[in-house]
Amino acid sequence: MSVHLSRCMELLTYLHDSELVARFQRRCGLFLVESAAGPRYEVRNWPLHFLFLLSASLGHEIFYITCLPNIHWSVDPFLCRRLLNTWALVMYVGQVMKDLLKLPRPFSPPVVKLETRVDAEYGLPSTHAMAATAISFTLLLSATSRIQFQFEVGLTIAVTLPTLVSLSRLYTGMHSVLDVICGILISAVLLGGTYPYWETMDHFQLNSPISPIVVLVLFYFLCYIYPELDHYSTTRADTTTILGTCAGASAGYWVNQQLGQTFEPEGMLPVPLPTLTASALALGTGRFLVGAVILLATRQIAKTVSLHVLYSWYKVPKSDNNARRRKEIEVPSKFATYASVGLVNSILANRIFLFLGLL
């Protein structure tokens, strides 16, 4: 028994080793170069470099915040709702695990660090790998009953996207192999454990009179009790952004259900994939541009108002930008801002599109 445990620990240590990440980077043409001015890096395989940088961007919160509304506007709000639920679950579990386990990211040297914003965060698990895996397979599993498509093609995309995102986390030096593997496995467990209850959750979310209150209060509570660290990290702010967006959108979907206008596809399901004509492309582009303006304006207004109210409540000088990092200001401000974005996206955006002739 002790021999097996020892071998298991050796394997975990090996998978978490920074040198393993550095070897992967060198195999892909990325090398650390020591100089008098400090560490630099040299790229010897530019196609792979751009591929992995693009793949890394697919795992950032900003990608999902811009991508998921377009699924609501142009494909099916049902799918957007399912994806938001999954996104909130996996990101909260992943972010909390990071700050409880406190395992470091790969060290530089020997690793090349291509990102700096989240370097103060802990490493295990990789939430990029978690989100990419969970969202890809949630979309695949949910879309089969809503849209006609070739399942093999969908499965190939669902495998390819998280694979590229996971490899990009190694290439950018942000995660160890262990971080990535654990992220994928945790997402698989969460999806497998919750999948039998997706329909029940849908019914509660759309029809229960207490659904908006439960979601808003629960998500805000989860953000406020987020684990405290001995240094400032962006994990709490990012988590609050995600949960606020999902809570606001969830309340909005409930409102749409009560109003009897859900903007979901009509007719016999699954519906055919919409034909990509010049007219459809123009309308989709119009929805994207108008929707982006609406959401950015909502974000700016809600952020300004919430910070003004909180600074006044806690008697903080407006010039004190560091006050935004205090939990009693950061959490309610972020939550209110992005809950407003989620509400506007789910309730108002499509109605504005109808008024402008974009739907």
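Next protein, fold it too.
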Amino acid sequence: MKKMGVPGKIIFVLILLLHKSIQQETFNDRATLNVPENEIGWMKNLDEEKLISDITIPGTHDSLALHGGPAAECQAWSLQDQLNAGIRYFDLRVSGFGLRIMHGPVSQHTTFPDVFNTIKTFLSKYKTETVLVRVKPVFFLLKNKVPGLVENVIENDISWVADEIPKIGQVRGKIVFVQKNSFELGIPLFETDEHNDYIVTDVETKIQKIIMHLTEATDEHNRADKVVLNYSSGTGWPKVRLLNTPKSVASEINPWLYNYLNNESKNPNPSLVLGL
């Protein structure tokens, strides 16, 4: 499978994905996904010496937000289906109360240990892959407990918790943690999005912001000793309420983004896109 994107960044798409087993559909919200076994381990062809920060890694925003109604649901696929589809970055909002996965006040009916074990099992089968995980502690009164509780769950043999950017060959079969603010395990993260960029009042404005952020991700200063995170996700909530739900935004942004990156990859002197 060929992945295309900007060097040193992660692209977020909400209801995914780009996989040749589904004829490169750019928006798919069916409940399940069937991927041929031989197409799941797409990272096997990556250069062992290439840094994680120099590879475009597809990921999901609020990765397990499967419950809570149209305004809250960011994904259509389970964690297992996302892994099978090629997703290799997961954004987890974790509460200090039992390490429950949350989206705002809504429980997503799973916990960090459950997620960790699912990814461990996946990596034990597909040893060529690596999965990046960002833990974002939530809920003010308990969130300071989250890092310690997470440390009690993870295992160093399948987890990269150092702040040094690893090469692909160093982390095959491992979970790479990504640090930001109150969670300090793992590799540093630089986000191109600014405050409230996720609020979509109209899709064209969102597209222009994504293009600006893709360009920003190529800046060597931003990519020094860190991974760069680009968002394509968005919602109209709370300003537009019933308009521009995560699903409706993704149904327009995903096809545009795929075509944009695909066209850039055909440029004989690409300024933005690296084909992997």
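About the second fold: Residues 4-275 form a domain with the TIM Barrel fold (CATH 3.20.20.190).
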